[in-house]
Amino acid sequence: MKPTEDWLQPINGKFRREDVLPTARLSLAILEYSKQFNCSWISPSNIDKTIENWFYRNTKPGSHQIGSLYNSTNEHSTLIHVFGKLIFLLDLACVL
After folding, report:
1. How far apart are CA 52 and CA 94, in angstroms?
2. Residue 43 above 70 pLDDT?
3. DSSP assignments along 24-55, one per residue
């Protein structure tokens, strides 16, 4: 099952209400989709491409770029996102 607009809009709204940084929303949406629908896949796939394209279309340009870890105004949050994404990908690899 491919993610739909009806699923993506509320997830993004939830992340916005929880003050999740835009740089983390894409990865968290992929993780949330996997949990809710009890599925895993090999990346790249239509599922993660659909989620990625939706976030790029529906968020401010450049909001997904992490940028330099040392020039960030919020270094701690950036580091958490980078390492969180790495752990997510490693965890996903173990499931497959």
Report:
1. 22
2. no
3. HHHHHHHHHHHHHTT---PSS-HHHHHHHHHH
